[in-house]
Anaerobic selenocysteine-containing dehydrogenase (Thermanaeromonas toyohensis ToBE), 686 residues
Amino acid sequence: MVLGKEYQVYRNVCPRNCFCTCSMLSYVRHGRLEKVAGDPLHGFTRGRLCAKGYAYVQRVYAPERVVFPLRQEPRGSGNWRRISWTEALDIIARKILEIKGRYGSLWPIALYVHYGHLGLLHLAVEGFFDALGFITKIQGNLCWSAGLEANLLDMGRNLQPDPETMANARSIIIWGANPAWTALHQMHFIDAARRLGALVVVIDPLITATAAQADLHIQVNPGGDGALALGVAKYLVEKGWYEKDFAKKYLLGWEEFKSYLQNKIKYTDIYRVAGVDQASIEELAKILVEHRPVALWKGMGLQRYTNGGQNIRAINALAALAGCLGSSGGGLYYASLQTWDLFNFHARNWSPPPGVKGEHRYLPITRAGEGLLAAQEPPVKFLWIARANPLSQAPDPAALQQAMSNMELVVLVDQFLTSTSQYADLFLPCTTQFEEWEIIPSYWHWWVAINQQAISPVGESKSDLEIAWNLSARLNELSPGSCNFPTGGDEEEWVAAEFNPYVYQLLGIKDYRELLQGPRKLKMPERGGEPSFATPSRKYELYSAKARQAGLPAIPVLTSPLSPPPPYPFRLLTPHFQGGNNSQFLNLPWLISGSREPVLRLHPAIADKLNLKSGDLVRVYNDQGELVLPVLVTQRVPPQVVVCYQGGTGGKINRLLGGVETDLGKEGAGAPAPAYFETFVNIARV
Ligand SMILES: Nc1nc2c(c(=O)[nH]1)N[C@H]1C(S)=C(S)[C@@H](COP(=O)(O)OP(=O)(O)OC[C@H]3O[C@@H](n4cnc5c(=O)[nH]c(N)nc54)[C@H](O)[C@@H]3O)O[C@H]1N2
Ligand SMILES: Nc1nc2c(c(=O)[nH]1)N[C@H]1C(S)=C(S)[C@@H](COP(=O)(O)OP(=O)(O)OC[C@H]3O[C@@H](n4cnc5c(=O)[nH]c(N)nc54)[C@H](O)[C@@H]3O)O[C@H]1N2
Ligand code: SF4
Ligand SMILES: [Mo]
């Protein structure tokens, strides 16, 4: 704690699922959070936050924030009444024990967690259920698994260079990401490179805020990126412009891939799938060769297809040929899991009581609703949802809603009555980051900051960790020895328990408390300029035996996304929105005032055909469902596509999404992710 003139100033961290993981200073007076600011000692975010970050005071004290446990009777009625924590925990503990007695198994108990908060202590929810026994788990994530698996197949891990070094690149290829909205602070390093003469290329079907600032924008067809990457690779090979020494030394399957490029794919197919011409292929090839080092960033938007994983593999292969790997200042970016895996995961790693044997039952997240409905012997009767708003964010929410309707007890831990709360029985209010201790690593940059408690919990809210302790205590009162999770503790001590000598060494500190003086940057081990791979062959695997065993193409090959079926001619893209973070923030006045959402963006040619102007209402529909939205006519969207940013419709847009899955994602995440952008709709004036 630092004493300011009038305020007490604390260090907090934004725990949202965001590349930036900003360190923030919170200003507290008379026990009340009055303002937040960026932390100037954080080298990546450099004293700044995004608009959402500055709005946190509104979030903490939002009139609609729920700060007491509630019970809804009957489920779906909206008839919520306040209950005590004692009553809430008693209902839950008794239900767990009763189910266990009835079925002789904990499989009727299901857990759905996601990325609503990225703190390590929040993983206590998983730790608690593991300490209880073997349950049903919703497996995988709704986010990035296709790209993660593609990287694992090719390179054996998900490492990336320090994103601050992007400032030293001479060209930056932003492929299917929109950092001007989704990774705001990375723009500083991109701009720094530009000031030194770097070229910025954006590859995106939409003219995004990032594309609008680029030197070159390639408006690829949705799902056509693999084709584009292979086209550029083919051209590099034909010209002899690829990295020959690198290919010889590091590429497994090089001859096979080279022969594929030279003899098996035709430019005409590439142009058709990618929607680009030869001039764009040559221009990109020249930039890769003439503006080195090249930083190539694969965004998450581009992998949300049935061929998303293959497209990432093709882009990786192009990066390998173009000398991108291991180059100083350049490199391949997607996610940094090496900075994540360093911690102890003390809160998550708990085992069942001694003598309890078995295994968890897993249901893939892409079809969670269907899976929960279909699960038998024993069926699922109890669902705990934390850090997740699946009725807004998951595909096919109708199936999940139905599954929730069939449960005996649904518990939701959140701060607001979200779309998902409609089908919950019990609402347990949780704290915000200002009301708890936490440690929140980044999946992008190399900084680590501490989150200290700045104010008392608002109302009766509790952290997810404290809820887990309290529930374990009640369970053990009712049935001693039934849960192996601790029944109490000190949050700050649990922060300390996440550290180990290696993290301390990388941070250059001896004690976590030193982080109260300011964030520190991890000194990740140098890779000595030599690229290294963690694949079975220890090489970059253009040819992946693992992929082949899984029934997938062994080398990156030309693949197409789905085509629109005749009744639904428009592809619906639902990427991430500037003013929200998934379903969060769009309830706060500052962010609502700056937002036009929800709208359906469409091209003037479609508007002309349907005689629509901005503001007119349309029905957007397909076999899954329908929804009425105002249109926004814009040249920024190509004619075959309509766009509605996700999160802004309270989940209604995801009612149009089915259970289509990405091609990759099982390895690492346990299940593929939804292929969100393989959704087709029609529109009609209302
Ligand atoms: N159509 C479409 N859908 C998508 C996507 C898309 O591109 N298009 N993207 C997908 C992606 S990439 C992602 S990551 C998912 C995100 O899906 P989710 O992770 O489910 O969504 P969020 O809205 O980030 O967070 C869920 C909830 O966590 C709550 N929360 C915040 N802090 C805490 C806490 O401390 N404890 C608890 N228990 N809860 C807390 C928030 O209030 C919020 O209601 O959405 C996916 N959905
Ligand atoms: N403001 C804000 N920031 C966020 C989030 C948020 O909701 N709002 N969410 C966070 C989370 S959970 C995530 S996963 C990340 C996501 O952040 P990003 O990696 O930026 O991913 P998306 O927003 O899904 O999509 C990025 C771009 O991909 C484009 N795209 C769609 N299809 C294709 C394609 O076939 N090829 C190519 N080349 N491009 C395509 C979209 O038009 C979009 O502009 O952002 C994080 N940061
Ligand atoms: S949402 Fe992202 S950019 Fe905004 S304050 Fe949080 S971590 Fe920073
Ligand atoms: Mo995500």
Remarks:
- The CA atoms of residues 615 and 630 lie 5 Å apart.
- Residues 14, 16, 18, 20-22, 49-50, 52-53, 184, 581 surround iron/sulfur cluster (ligand 3) (CB under 6 Å).
- The first helix runs from residue 51 to 54.
